[in-house]
Design brief:
This protein has 77 residues and is mostly helical. It has a domain of 31 residues. Helix content is 64%, strand content 0%. The chain contains 3 helices and no strands. The radius of gyration is 27 Å and the shape is rod-shaped.
Length: 77
């Protein structure tokens, strides 16, 4: 389902946006819609990445064998 959205912009911005849309062979409405969709998609990707990172932090990271080696084993010859 799609819905209409009302946006208020100054005349100069509207004029420049119409020119930009024409250069991209699209309508002003489609130009605005695609930019909003891009922003929403980027935010979705960010939110998923954030949840993944937070989950990894909660689980922790295994950084070694559990206990540090003792001095003697480090200096064996």
């Amino acid at each position: 389902m799609s819905r209409n959205l009302t946006v208020h912009l100054d005349d100069e911005t509207v004029h420049k946006a119409k020119v930009l849309a024409a250069h991209r062979a699209t309508s002003l409405s489609r130009l605005v819609a695609s930019q909003i969709e891009r922003l929403v998609d980027e935010d979705d990707v960010y939110q998923r990445a954030q949840q993944t990172a937070l989950g990894q932090l909660e689980r922790g990271f295994r950084l070694g064998s559990g206990s540090p080696p003792d001095r003697e084993s480090l200096h064996e010859r």
